Amino acid sequence: MSYAWRSKYGWTAFCGPAGPTGQASCGKCLLNGGLDLDFDTVFSKIDTDGQGVAQGHLTVNYQFVDCGDN
């Protein structure tokens, strides 16, 4: 994926126990409560108790969705 495409989304990579992972997940978009996870714009805002930063991650539910930009 081009840098321009990747720059449109706050989070375009992930690790998860379900769904496609690794190469199969590249370029897919996620729906996570309507938020794109970038530290400054989202992660810091939904890490309400600071434990996400302390632990180095947040546990979230996600769903693959159509990016709407094909």
UniProtKB/TrEMBL annotation:
Entry keywords, A to Z: Disulfide bond
Pfam families xrefs: Barwin
Residues covered by the Barwin domain: 1-69
SUPFAM superfamilies: Barwin-like endoglucanases
One MF term in the entry's GO annotations: RNA nuclease activity
Superkingdom to which the source organism belongs: Eukaryota
GO-annotated biological processes: defense response to bacterium; defense response to fungus
PANTHER family: HEVEIN-LIKE PREPROPROTEIN (PTHR46351:SF21), WOUND-INDUCED PROTEIN WIN2 (PTHR46351)
Entry protein name: Barwin domain-containing protein
Species of provenance: Triticum turgidum subsp. durum (Durum wheat)
Taxonomic lineage: Eukaryota, Viridiplantae, Streptophyta, Embryophyta, Tracheophyta
